[in-house]
Amino acid sequence: QVQLLESGGGSVQAGGSLKLSCKVSGYIFNNCGSGWYRQAPGKERELVSATYAPGPTTYADSVKGRFTISREDGGHTLYLQMNNLKNEDTGVYYCAAKRRYIQEGFYKCSENWEYWGQGTQVTVSS
After folding, report:
1. Could you tell me the CA-to-CA distances from 2 to 14, 15, 25 in Å, in that order?
2. How far, in Å, CA of 63 to CA of 100, rounded?
3. Residue 117: pLDDT over 80
4. What is the pLDDT of residue 21?
5. Among 7, 12, 40, 117, which residue's CB has the most CB atoms within a 10 Å radius?
6. Cα angle for residues 40, 42, 44 (degrees, 5° grid)
7. Is residue 28's pLDDT more than 90?
8. How far apart, in whole angstroms, are the C-alpha atoms of residue 82 and residue 99?
């Protein structure tokens, strides 16, 4: 079983910074995709950033230039450095990953994000 555990959330004032961490237990194939989602009050859950290392990284337009995703330990630790935080960044942040599987003798990646952490709260005040 794959388990993801987020940490590093908290309350900060606008303009401040936080660094979120995600520890991965069990096997994960990061080329399939790992990253961060968030859900703000009254809004749909959105993809904040994803990495397909050693391939590309992606960022939501709202966080470009402010957030940076990175990984260590062969992908068993995932980070999200958040700078210049804004009120609209408030929400529950989730670490997530796609699943690697074998079908007809070939390695494949799940289309959906299937592994999820329980979330860590980030609150930004003016």
Report:
1. 34, 35, 6
2. 28
3. yes
4. 97
5. 117
6. 65
7. no
8. 26
